[in-house]
Design brief:
Layout lengths: L5 H15 L3 H14 L4 H13 L3 H14 L4 H13 L3 H14 L4 H13 L3 H14 L4 H13 L3 H14 L4 H13 L3 H14 L5 H12 L3 H14 L4 H13 L3 H13 L4 H14 L3 H14 L4 H12 L4 H8 L10
Helix pairs in contact: 1-2, 2-3, 3-4, 3-5, 4-5, 5-6, 5-7, 6-7, 7-8, 8-9, 9-10, 10-11, 11-12, 11-13, 12-13, 13-14, 14-15, 15-16, 15-17, 16-17, 17-18, 17-20, 18-19
């Protein structure tokens, strides 16, 4: 990072603090002020570009990435930013070219290889993607995302033995890595090897009894296999391990909705709203609760508030559309309020 005036650094770190608080508008203002004082402040350009990518304002991300290249022509991160922006604009040739330049500028950085692989997968070029994912994994054996992509490609090709071998190879290198066992368990479940899947989930739990990811994954497994009492117990275990975590309470709220236990839904929604990270999920379940009670005048603004804060929150869009299109179909609304129980997306 080039030297920046003290005041520019102050604005930059203020922006970093706003990012941590999820105040995107204030963060953008702070980074912009930093760049007014120090136009060559590379890290501020990076931060502004990343905010633009998160907000899907891809033209601003492109502008920030290009300015960064003017300051540091060999900056691989700038090419990653450009690649992501071009992907957002669905300009695949330019995205691929940018990721290749990122690889060229930083050949030991696995990120360029991984992002190029993702772009190839979007073009359904799985063989090319497999090659660069393997390169990413060879540069960094901890590249879990690259490993996941490799396993998924093998599964798409029906090469289940190769997928399993890849997981076991990674586990042999990192036998204490819970995420690898969860990936292997998911693989077993996809092959309908249910006993192997359950045993592997439980092994992951035993490796780190304080990690909530394993009981959450086990709960999802039990949901898909219709072992609902066991699923509920697993989610409650995760909630007890991490009382402030959002996902366990969100899954418990989904469960309560499916079973029409509306008082429990209200309880979980209130608990979510008390935590900073649970605001969006809390409002979402307040909307679902209002919908289940036929309180459209409360449901609609709740879903609107969720979408305003988290535009990609698909379920809020789904229920908001339903409340606007079918306001007279009382039975449909009640059924919609209690969706078929299934693993929820991250909340």
């Amino acid at each position: 990072m080039r030297a920046a005036p003290t005041l520019a650094l102050a604005h930059y770190y203020l922006g970093v603090a706003y990012v941590a608080q999820r105040d995107t508008a204030a963060a953008k203002t702070a980074f912009t002020e930093a760049l007014k004082l120090a136009p060559d402040f590379a890290e501020a350009h990076v931060a502004l570009a990343e905010l633009s990518l998160q907000s899907q304002v891809f033209n601003q991300a492109l502008e920030a990435g290009q300015k960064l290249l003017q300051i540091e022509p060999s900056n691989a991160r700038a090419y990653l930013i450009l690649g992501h922006a071009y992907l957002g604009q669905k300009d695949m040739p330019k995205a691929i070219a940018a990721f290749k330049l990122a690889m060229e500028k930083a050949p030991q950085d696995p990120r360029g290889y991984y992002e190029l692989g993702r772009a190839y997968r979007l073009q359904h070029k799985d063989q090319e993607a497999l090659g660069v994912f393997e390169q990413a994994l060879s540069l960094d054996p901890n590249q879990y995302n690259a490993l996941t992509q490799i396993v998924n490609i093998f599964l798409t090709k029906g090469a289940t033995a190769q997928a399993e071998a890849k997981c076991l190879q990674a586990i042999a290198l990192r036998p204490q890595d819970v995420s690898l066992y969860l990936l292997l368990a998911t693989l077993y479940a996809s092959q309908n090897k249910l006993q192997d899947a359950e045993a592997t989930y439980r092994k992951a739990m035993a490796l780190n009894p304080q990690d909530i990811q394993a009981p959450l994954a086990l709960g999802d497994f039990y949901v898909t296999t219709q072992q609902l009492d066991a699923a509920l117990a697993a989610y409650k275990q995760a909630a007890a391990l991490a009382p402030e975590a959002v996902t366990p309470k969100a899954k418990l709220a989904e469960f309560a909705l499916a079973q029409n236990r509306l008082d429990d839904v209200a309880k979980y929604a209130a608990e979510l709203l008390k935590s900073r990270d649970g605001q969006v999920a809390g409002r979402y379940f307040r909307g679902r609760l209002a919908l289940a009670r036929d309180q459209l005048e409360e449901a609609i603004p709740a879903f609107q508030a969720v979408i305003k804060e988290a535009p990609k929150y698909e379920r809020a869009h789904y229920y908001l559309v339903g409340t606007n299109i079918f306001p007279l179909l009382r039975g449909c609304r009640r059924r919609a309020a209690r969706c078929i129980l299934r693993p929820s997306p991250p909340l």
